[in-house]
Amino acid sequence: MNIALIAHDRKKDTLVNFVVAYRHIFAKANLYGTGTTGLRIHEATGLDVHRFQSGPLGGDQQIGALIAENRMDLVLFFRDPLMAQPHEPDIIALLRLCDVHNIPVATNMATAEILVKALERGDFAWRETINSQ
């Protein structure tokens, strides 16, 4: 299971705390993160996180490439809806790729919790079937 972890600056603490709370689930997955977010998650949890560039420097697009190649199973992107982002087109493109390729994506903690609990129950087995074809 490949999981992307992305957070805007004012949501980084929330995502780090979320991963800490569900560390036992994330420990079973391959984790990918953008710049500082990936580093902070690694420092807080000790989990291995493959780090890409920061979002504004192309990290969102790097994760988008994995989505386009069907190499990502879940995206947790804690967005800050109250702050304009200079790389908004990249964000929209990443979310569009999730829609095109049927990749579950959460943009807030409430949805992320539902998806992570589904992951824990084994509800993502269909992703393994798709990836093995």
From TrEMBL:
Residues 1-133 form the MGS-like domain. GO terms for molecular function: methylglyoxal synthase activity. It comes from the Bacteria. Substrate binds at residues 8, 12, 34-37, 54-55, 87. InterPro entries: Methylgl_synth, Methylglyoxal_synth_AS, MGS-like_dom, MGS-like_dom_sf. It is an enzyme of class 4 (lyase). It catalyses: dihydroxyacetone phosphate = methylglyoxal + phosphate. The active site is at 60 (proton donor/acceptor). The keyword Lyase applies. Pfam families: MGS (PF02142). Its EC number is 4.2.3.3. Keywords: Lyase. The keyword Lyase applies. Catalyzes the formation of methylglyoxal from dihydroxyacetone phosphate. PANTHER family: METHYLGLYOXAL SYNTHASE (PTHR30492:SF0). Belongs to the methylglyoxal synthase family. This is Methylglyoxal synthase. It comes from Effusibacillus consociatus. The gene is mgsA.
